[in-house]
What we know:
Elements: H1 2-19, E1 20-30, E2 42-51, E3 54-64, E4 70-78, E5 81-87, E6 93-96, E7 100-104, E8 112-128, E9 138-145, E10 151-158, E11 162-164, E12 169-172, E13 174-184, E14 187-197, E15 202-208
Amino acid sequence: MKQIFLFIFCLGLLFSCVKKREEIFHIKAINPVTGAPYAGLEWGVSATKTGANGEKKVYEEGGTLDANGEAFLTLKVKGERTYNIGCKKPGNTCYVKQISFTYAVQDAPKPTFLFEFAPCAYMKFKIANQNCEGPNDKLSYEDRFNYTDWRIGTYGIFGCFQNESNGYDAVPAGLRIYRWRVERSTGTTEYIDSIYLNAGDSGIFEMYY
């Protein structure tokens, strides 16, 4: 009987530790183009609790990021709640990696929530098949920034194609890399080129093939 009581007591102690613990949230915001921190941005943490009456949101705490673009929050997290961590983006932003994060008591301890906001630049995009061999010419291209993964621009543009964007479009600043593949009856050629734009800069990228 004593062993059973001890076993139940240990289970209860373990369950209570899992259900609630003190956690330190590290919140940080940076400009991924330069790595510089964003000071003074507003941040907030709320919790969502599911009960008999459905979901209920509770505001936990908030503030502004310090001179290093950081905030540290010590919070007693509870097992029945999911925590939402958000940060207000700065003005003139053209890239947001993630606008909010979620956290639960079963997640890894001492979490860091890193927000990345890239400012805007302006770019004109010119594209032209200057060595066209016919309607079966095929262009495929993709692009990425130095702080993102590759993304597909198009699977196929055919023929003697040429186009130019109307004016300068707002785009994320930083190093933008393009790579493209041209398939013609005489063979296949691959290219890679890039353009770097500081915040507020204007530039032209030409994809001639």
